[in-house]
Amino acid sequence: MGAGRTSPERPLRADARRNRDHLLAVAREAFEEAGPEASLVEIARRAGHAGHRGR
């Protein structure tokens, strides 16, 4: 299964769903402001995930 996808048998936990929804809202806002020049680093910072490297 691809990254970021969940199986139909195992829905996201509530905290994971909230985090995803928040990150998508922040990203949407950044892309509305900056268009395709929106920075993923800036999106992560705005979402409160700056400094996280995913490991």
What is the fold's blueprint, element by element?
Elements: H1 14-34, H2 40-47
**Radius of gyration, in angstroms, nearest whole number:** 13 Å
> How much beta, percentage-wise?
under 5%
Helix and strand succession?
HH
What form results from the Cα inertia axes?
elongated
Question: Helix content range of the residues, please?
Answer: 40-55%
Class from secondary-structure proportions: mainly alpha
Distance between the termini: 20 Å
- Determine the mean pLDDT: 85
How many strand elements?
Answer: 0
Unreliable runs: none
Could you give a short account of the major beta sheet? none
Q: Count of DSSP helices?
A: 2
Task: Explain what you see.
- Helix 1 (14-34) packs across helix 2.
- It is elongated, with a radius of gyration of 13 Å.
- The protein has 55 residues and is mainly α.
- The mean pLDDT is 85.
- It has a domain at 14-47.
- The protein starts with 13 loop residues before the first helix and ends in an 8-residue tail after the last helix.
- The protein has helices at residues 14-34, 40-47.
- The protein has two helices and no strands.
- It is 53% helix and 0% strand.
- InterPro entries: Homeodomain-like_sf (IPR009057).
- This is TetR family transcriptional regulator.
